[in-house]
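ENTRY TYPE: paired fold submission
RECORD: A
CONTENT: sequence, then structure tokens
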Amino acid sequence: MDIDRALKAKKISVGDRVGVTKDGFTVEGMLLPRIELSDTSSLVIKQDNGYNVGIRYGKGVEIEFLGKGKAVSHRHAVVEAQHDSKKPLVSIMGAGGTIASRVEYDTGAVFPEFSPGDLLKSFPQLKGIANVKGRELFRLFSEDMTPEHWKIIAKESAREIESGADGVVLMHGTDTMNYTAAALSFMLQSLPAPVVVVGAQRSSDRGSSDNLMNLVCATNAAAHSDVAEVSVCMHATSNDDYCYLHQGNKVRKMHTSRRDAFRSINTLPYAKLWFSDAKVEYLRSDYSKRSGRKIRLDDKMNPDVGLIQIHPGIKPELIEASKKFFDGVVLSGTGLGHVPTNPSNEKFAQSVVPAVRSLVDSGVPVVMAPQTIYGRLDLNVYSAGRLLKQAGVIGDGADWLPETALVKLMWVLGHTKDMDKVREMMSTNFAGELSKDIEPSSFLV
């Protein structure tokens, strides 16, 4: 029996007082929620001494109900969000994740914090940076985010800037943060102010949580940096010293759990944002600066695009069948942008080029992206690449991430399905997603 079924059978809820016995040792305390990065195969108990204990659930573990938890209340000390006319206004919006959640230890409940007073209570450093306004758009695990959610975020970000915000911060789960940031980079055009996407790798009830520093640095970027682009702000190192401000469509989560998991790809971050003194240290100058220009929202998206990872033994039928489900396909190819071609007619190998050509001939654009993540595609070096070019594959010379290529193709197909126009738009550098030159020092930064 799994944990949830065992708790349900005993009518035990988060916040209830329980006793858990394993190997003759009993722990008593309040049952806490298992948040985002916690081990879902374990019970987490807050003892009366304040320490949390994790107990892996399995055979021989006994759970005893000792009493109902206190009624959940979202009331706490009120903090006035006083306006300071000398400070910029930053709009902080929530789209999910645990970055701005508060654990109420009397009940074990987890609450989002999105009123200005809530934010200032949880993150009092914000009042030294800017006037803040906060609201929740939706509460989602980031893996549940869809292109429809991206459109809502884009519209609300544009609305906040048009209403006078000097910058926007979007709190978001980290797993698909780069997809959302890439989408916003195409949908929010002629940005006059920063839009900064931020998250946390560690939940707020952990001593190693990165939520405070990340949000403070992101708010500082939105309020005071000159980078009028869509960006991602996350820990730069394993220390609590500074965050990187990454270009939104050239950033990727490169570790499952490290606080410094996010890395700029094929470029340097825009800036370092120092936590202790709020210093902004610029690393690049090739970005749009703050200005009085009018933001333009272009949120047309076609979500029917697939991303296929090329791998040894991939069957042509998989690619051929994708025309039944998708209006466009991105292939994450090996090396310089390759797929199996079997030029020597080896008996175990199969070429997928005919399937790719069939897809293109049927009106489904096929875009190549490098699964190496770093580097630029070159379909002219080997015969496999030349065969793909002849088949009509788009992307030669591109250095986009597979996720960015996916999002861009969704955006392009939201505007047109004409193959020539799709090819033209995919080859156009709309938001800095295509690097003219790749800075050698950007590798593994």
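RECORD: B
CONTENT: sequence, then structure tokens
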Amino acid sequence: MTSRSLMIITFVLLSIYSWCATSVVATNLYPANLDGLKNQFQTAMKSFSDVASLHYSLAGIKELGVQPPDTFCNDIKKLVDKSNIESIYHATEAAKVLTNCKLSVDDYRSKITSTIQSYKSTTTLVFNAFYEVAEKAGASIKIDPKQLIKFANYFSTKRHVATLRSAYYLTKAFKHLSDNKNSMPIVVSRVSSSEVNQQNPSVLVSVTNLFGQPVGEMTVTADSAKRNEDGVVVISKQKLTPKASDFTVYELSFYDKKIPRGFYTIHLTLTPRTDGKFIGLTDHTIDVKVTSEVTLENVELNIADRDNAAQVKTYKLTYPNPLSNNLEIDYHQKLIVKFQIKDKQTDEFIRVQQTFLRFTNKQSNKEVIYLAEATNGVNSQYKVEVDLTINANDFHHQSGAYELVLIVGDALLQKSFSWKLNDNIQLSFHEDSVPDTDHLSLYSAKREIIHQFREEEKRPPTIVSLVFSGLTLLPLLILLISWLKLGFNLSGLPLGLSPLGFHISHGAAFALMYFYWKYLDMFQTMRYLALVSIPLFLFGHRVLAILAARREKKA
């Protein structure tokens, strides 16, 4: 395949990709992973085995703004293979990166000349291409902004690069996309925490190019901020204020007591203050969440009889103080825990994602956890009921002292917490404690698995196999005896190619029967027999015709 054909195929594939790509463009770009690329280049510069790796490492680190030392010039001269044109190319390109590194032209002249002569058409194509690009350099690059955003999004989401060659060209791509002479994609990313609350009321947004460099002053506007749960708009057309002198960080005052807790999506639009070929200025989204502090109220521990015969003992608690009383509950009773969760900012009772009541045996440290469920309604009261008769199996009937802890957690809480309700609650079960066999079996040695193959069946005596072998050969023996008794009529055997082919084909059919008995299956035998039958039929028909002609001649 010629180079011209390869270029045509490449352009066709790119065109197909452009048409087949989805119309929805991911406008949220990610900052280039420059630190990862820099570490990859620096690690490769410490140990390299070929001049290509050295070339990509030196060139890549220079693209990131670090000038490599000239000491690598000696390494270039040692690694270059003067008989390999690709090695010569990497050596010369690596030497260009260094400030003062000169290679002897005479060492490579003969190889370069022979390569140009052998690939004259390819060299001419590339040579003319340089001139065509130079002639059109004054014109702007004609590329659809959506397609450029797709390429930028593809490059910026590539977190790991396998080879130094790919890392070098990826760095070059970032540099081209960050050049203000060309169309430049804008990267908008959140640099502050995603959590917004009274202590952290603002959202900080970074506005840079793919290299993380400033792009000049921008007017950043929060078109809207919608709650993901119901789509309620809490912010509309609010401008962000610059926080850095180079206009790379902007601040949005987001928190307000009127904004309820929840997950929000902020839609941003950018307007440049200076002239520039910027793309990707709209449809940027930032995800944040508004969190709050909560407190527990109306907390009660109730101890009641199972049959409600006696009066219920009620203990009221105040968060975060534990109950100092020693509680005793036997198998005739049940424990009921009730509480409500209130948002400190709004003074409203709320529901959270996780509420658990945990019993911990103070002797064995075994935990038993129950889920607290909220009632329907505005007050959202949580309730946990533990019956010491019904739930005795959960505790394995282990009586003794337990620690009682309430656990509250939610993604929209500033801090999840656990509250020790009581440090010494005595539980008494009716039956004796049951050993936790399931727990012990996790660490005890398992029974050894011994695999036993099926024992061989007893074979019949040797005399039986010999008798059946004799019966198998009996028809052949009868045939031979009959021939001996009647006599062989070899004089009537016709001579020629047809009789010889008939006997060979006939013998092949018998041999095929033997192979079927020993090695082949029925379908394989049928295929081979179909091939053998053709010459057997033709030669047999010819032999019978010869014998019939002889009989007519004698008559």
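NOTES ON RECORD B: Residues 1-25, 120-132 have pLDDT under 50 and may be disordered. The first strand starts at residue 184 and ends at 185.
STATUS: closed
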